[in-house]
Specification:
The strands form 3 sheets. Strands 5-2-3-6-9 form a 5-stranded mixed beta sheet. Strands 1-8-7 form a 3-stranded antiparallel beta sheet. It is α+β, with helices and mostly antiparallel strands. It has a single domain, classed as YbaK/aminoacyl-tRNA synthetase-associated domain (YbaK protein, Alpha-Beta Complex), CATH 3.90.960.10. The protein is built from 5 helices and 10 strands.
Length: 159
Amino acid sequence: MSSEALSPRLQEFLSSNHVHYDTMTHPHAFTARDTAASAHIDSHEMVKTVMVRLDGKLAMAVLPSDEWLDLAQLRKVSGAREVALATESDFKDRFPECEVGAMPPFGNLYAMDVFAAASLAEDDDIAFNAGSHRELIRMGWDDFARLVHPRMVELTRRH
């Protein structure tokens, strides 16, 4: 994928922080599991960004594509009274440079909290949508954690 296809905001952020990453084009896919399969990436390494509302405020839950978000567990670890999946209309305008549902898991670039599944730290690398349903970025987990400062919590259950 050419560097022009990356979100300029994300590209500048990664470059200014001297992060090594690879980009990959894959057949069009909507789900993280389908993306992992089409890009020949382990489904645990491929992450999905699930947009949620915590007491009405948008946040990101980042989890492996082979796990499901447990809303009751997210409520418990976040301390929120109300937890719900966000609708596309809730967040589509928040990521103008991205296709709906293909935003990268960098909530810090969009002024929102990021909750990451503790199981993500089991892998050296993660891969995620780079703003479209055809391109992804693969980078080191340690770099992601250093840049995003996600709250590492238990918030999933396996498929």
